[in-house]
Amino acid sequence: MKKWFSNLGYKLRHFMQGRYGYDELSSFFFICGFVLLLLSYIPYLKILYIISFILLMWSLRRAFSKNIYKRQMERQKYLTSKNKIKQKFLLFKNVWRDRKTHKYFKCPYCKSVIRISKPGKGKTIAIHCPKCGQECKKRT
């Protein structure tokens, strides 16, 4: 029996040679498909079953694909958009955490976020952007 499992592992490694394999995007598709599959058991949501099946099959298709370059480009786009969303949530978390002591402004020139301590209500202050070096006046 031990030899059979050893041969199975060897055959699986041989089959996956030259294929893309499993990555974060395939994992995301698989988890979304599984969640939609569970939600499809709710009455009147049977369309989710079809969508979940498509996502699960897409996950397997990506894992067994031999077009590695295209899968890497898809993964890079996914990671870029995931990091943008993650940065937005991190900014909202920091704004909420610092709401009593600091104020956040967006630079009108380079659109970067600037954090300054609250000087007082209704005061106009000159903000110097550390990224682009421009100065703008904002009201707190």
Backbone shape: elongated
Parts with pLDDT < 50 across at least 5 consecutive residues: none
**Number of folding domains?**
2
| N-to-C SSE string, H for helix and E for strand | HHHHEEEE
Largest sheet: 2 strands, antiparallel
Strand content: 5-15%
Measured on Cα atoms, how large is the radius of gyration? 25 Å
Measured distance between first and last alpha carbons = 73 Å
How many beta-strand runs? 4
Q: Mean pLDDT across all residues, rounded?
A: 89
User: Numbering strands along the chain, what is their spatial order in the largest sheet?
Assistant: 1-2
**Helical residues, percent:** 55-70%
Would you spell out the secondary-structure blueprint of this structure?
Layout lengths: L1 H15 L7 H16 L7 H18 L3 H30 L4 E5 L6 E5 L6 E5 L6 E5 L1
Antiparallel strand pairs: 1-2, 3-4
Helix pairs in contact: 2-3
